[in-house]
Amino acid sequence: FPEGKYHKQIRIEENATGFGYEKLFQEYLTEIVSEVWVEDPYIRHVHQASRYLLYNFLRFCEMLVKGPCKVRTIHLLTSYDEGGGRSQQISGLEEIQQSLRNYGVTLNIAFSSSIHDREIRFNNGWMIKIGRGLDYFKKPQGRFSVGYCDFDLRPCHETTVDVFHTKHTKKM
């Protein structure tokens, strides 16, 4: 396909399974990917049930660390938790940041009060927009239910994934 002319749309149906991050992103994570931009207003920890938002981002980072790409820098742009969960949000993100450092990956975190769109960009020109951002998985039935650990087995919320290739990925 000619660069800049590629667009693919994936529709994830309500309760569909088999859409873990590896399945969705792996084909775009070539060896040359070293930098990733994640814009998602909802990487936060509003209350106990929403800790999954931080876990989702952590799971995404784990996929990047496993390769085959050689990610060295992840840029996260999100919004502050508006409730009383801001300190948990920040400490959770700092813990992820520290953990990534052990793998030679730098996590740059920035906050915006006006961010709305959700997109993920790789420095090889691929851009993925997910209607629900990284949070398209349903809450697991329980801590010992199938799908708790393996996102491929976790039912999803209905959402649309748009994949584009741009010749020049815009810088944040």
UniProtKB/TrEMBL annotation:
Q: Name one Pfam family in it.
A: MIT_C
The gene for this chain is Mitd1
Q: What is this protein called?
A: MITD1 protein
Its GO biological process annotations read: midbody abscission
Source domain of life is Eukaryota
What InterPro entries has UniProt attached to this entry? MIT_domain_contain_protein1, MITD1_C, MITD1_C_sf
GO-annotated cellular components: midbody
Using the record's annotation, list all stretches that form the MITD1 C-terminal phospholipase D-like domain.
18-165
